[in-house]
């Protein structure tokens, strides 16, 4: 998606055999988690192998973890994960919804940057796992003449297993460059006013379409081991603050909104309450027969929202006696979300462009 015009020419003072030099540009590289190339066994195995081998994601000793991963988990999980991906796959485009949405976000951001800066800025996207790789997109940006690159992991809240590993891949890609560009990475934007506004608008829009107002809204964030909080990861605190700021913007009291965490993996305790258990408790013990769920930690709908929330967690709620389950989609390429992301980009380009 390197759509800015690039020109290359030999510097006027250089000898005739000097290679052409491209006109300097600024690159904005947005990054998301990643997606398998397909939902067949081998595509899923490659993707899950890369994802679950990341020490930022699973920090157990490789001597213990890798035999379990390679011999047990990757023998079985690609089948179940593949079926889950198949149920939400964008068959028309031959790609996952996350890929489709990330492309749409990037295209919208490119238009926004074009309107603001003309041809000075190139916008593209990469994935931490799978394709297109961070390495390939850094290389393409350098070849297109980007002497400065702003790297933007699309995670509102910082976590070592998301933002940090995305940055790791970016820095590793830079290590392969002969002439490294000047770079910046974007801070988490969990409390940015336009991000909170976009979240609030999405909830107000969804509620306005319902005949019955939900008894409670669960803000379901992707979970991490509870141990990470004790080790200094700020993710839990940033999730709680996002929920609080959202509640204040909506003008609600604390009984109308709740923070929960999903996608628990492995034997140890993760951040609680677990969404899948909490929705059942809300229905069976608290008598909440109508609930809504949003996913503020996800910038785009993906397997964790379209399959886990809208299928597994919905089933848990309904099995416990719940009657009305409303999933509020991620912000995706909604104009309010693009305005928020554009504002974050512009703030981080300060000093590089007028």
Using only CA atoms, what is the Rg? 22 Å
> What is the CATH architecture term of the domain at 193-327?
3-Layer(aba) Sandwich
Indicate the percent of residues in helices. Answer: 40-55%
Shape: globular
Which residues form runs of ≥5 with pLDDT under 50?
Answer: none
End-to-end distance: 24 Å
Sequence of secondary-structure elements: EEEHHHEHEHEHEHHEHEHEH
Can you give me a brief rundown of this structure?
The chain is an alpha/beta fold and 354 residues long. It has helices at 41-52, 62-88, 97-117, 134-143, 160-174, 193-208, 226-230, 235-250, 275-284, 303-319, 335-348; strands at residues 8-9, 21-22, 25-35, 121-130, 146-153, 182-185, 216-222, 257-262, 290-294, 324-327. Among the domains are: 37-88, no CATH class; 193-327, Rossmann fold (3-Layer(aba) Sandwich).
Task: Report what the structure shows.
The chain has 354 residues and is α/β, with parallel strands linked by helices. It has eleven helices and ten strands. The strands form three sheets. The protein has a four-stranded parallel sheet, with helices on both faces. The chain has a four-stranded parallel sheet with strand order 8-7-9-10, with helices on both faces. A two-stranded antiparallel ribbon has the order 1-2. The longest helix has 27 residues, at 62-88. It is globular and about 80 Å long. The relative contact order is 0.14.
């Amino acid at each position: 998606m390197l759509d800015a015009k690039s020109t290359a020419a030999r510097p006027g003072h250089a000898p005739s055999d000097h290679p052409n030099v491209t006109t300097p540009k600024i690159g904005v590289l947005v990054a998301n988690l990643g997606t398998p190339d397909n939902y067949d066994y081998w595509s899923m195995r490659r993707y899950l192998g890369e994802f679950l081998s990341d020490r930022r994601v699973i920090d157990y000793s490789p001597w213990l973890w890798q035999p379990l991963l390679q011999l047990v988990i990757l023998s079985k999980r690609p089948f179940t994960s593949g079926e889950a991906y198949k149920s939400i796959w964008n068959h028309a485009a031959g790609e996952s919804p996350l890929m489709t949405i990330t492309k749409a976000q990037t295209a919208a951001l490119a238009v926004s940057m074009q309107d603001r800066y003309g041809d000075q800025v190139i916008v593209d996207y990469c994935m931490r796992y799978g394709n297109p790789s961070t390495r390939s997109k850094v290389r393409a940006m350098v070849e297109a003449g980007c002497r400065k690159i702003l790297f933007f992991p699309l995670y509102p809240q910082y976590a070592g297993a998301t933002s940090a590993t995305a940055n790791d891949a970016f820095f590793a890609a830079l290590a392969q460059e002969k002439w490294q560009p000047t770079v910046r990475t974007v801070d988490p934007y969990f409390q940015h006013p336009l991000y909170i506004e976009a979240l609030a608008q999405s909830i107000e829009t969804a509620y306005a379409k319902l005949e019955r107002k939900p008894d409670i809204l669960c803000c379901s964030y992707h979970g991490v081991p509870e141990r990470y909080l004790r080790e200094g990861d700020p993710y839990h605190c940033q999730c709680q603050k996002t929920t609080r700021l959202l509640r204040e913007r909506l003008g609600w009291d604390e009984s109308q909104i709740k923070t929960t965490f999903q996608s628990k993996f492995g034997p140890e305790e993760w951040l609680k309450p677990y969404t899948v258990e909490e929705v059942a408790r809300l229905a069976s013990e608290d008598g909440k027969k109508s609930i809504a769920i949003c996913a503020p930690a996800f910038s785009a709908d993906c397997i964790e929202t379209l399959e886990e929330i809208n299928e597994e967690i919905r089933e848990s709620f309904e099995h416990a006696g719940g009657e009305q389950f409303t999933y509020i989609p991620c912000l995706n390429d909604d104009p309010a979300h693009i305005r928020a992301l554009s504002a974050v980009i512009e703030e981080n380009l300060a000093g590089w462009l007028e």
